[in-house]
Amino acid sequence: MARDNHRISFDMSHGGGSGFRTLVAFASLTMLFGVIGSASSQGITANDVIARHLDAVGGLKRLDAMKTLRLTGTVTPRQDFQLSLIVSKKRPNKIHVEFAPPGGQSAFGSYDGETAWEINPFDDLPDPVIVVGSQLEEWERTAEFHGPLVHYRESGHKVVYVGVEDGREHLILTFKQGGDMHLFLDAKTHLLVETRMYRALRGGDMTTITQRFRDYRKIEGVQFAFEREETAKNGHREVIKWEKIEVGVELDDALFALPTTRTDR
User: How confident is the model over 215-247, as pLDDT tens digits?
Assistant: First the structure.
């Protein structure tokens, strides 16, 4: 896969990242909850905010009971083009992504807890390519089963509570790999409604990536966002819609393992 602003022939990037990173990032953000630190704003602590959030999404006990997830749906990287999409996740930190155009070849990407690899026929890369550097770090954090907030201390992340803005509770998460994510929870429902991150474009310029989460539904007593819209200041827009989310499906470790034929990058 290409290493710049458009890693595949259609624009599925984060406005400056890989199509794979777009998809796995949403898989992680489908649920974003957890117990955060004790930073406070005007007397309200992050723990207060997150306690309400956890209750709203179904509770930490239910989250911890989930061992595997499979999300099936579509991604629309532009108005006239749609791809099928399957994301599979397995505790503690395994993820596999597959997407394909109608009647076309599939692209694959996976992380097994140590190694990330990608196969992308759209970029004339029929063999698996080992992912390294910042792209590997992206896979590592998106492989976190329920996203970076759940058990964030064990993952090495840091979170602060900023306050309420326009009816939304604002948190800032700093990843252990570096980089910040701004998260906004609806002050009434306590569900995640928006995130913002900054991404590098070709040439080093930065753009703001905004993701909005809609259509929450309960699966096994836990709230999942079935729709995510992503926009960027460079005009990029993408929509992912899940048709089905399955909990507790059988996922063999071989699904995530690096195939025998490989290319290092």
Answer: 999 999 999 999 999 998 878 899 999 999 999
**Could you tell me the pTM of the whole model?**
0.81
> pLDDT tens-digit profile of 5-33?
333 322 222 333 345 555 555 554 555 44
CATH number of the structural domain 19-264: 2.50.20.10
Q: How far is CA 59 from CA 34, 44, 187, 189, in A?
A: 9, 20, 17, 14
- Domain positions in the chain are 19-264
> Which residue, 62, 80, 63, 83, is CA-closest to 72?
83
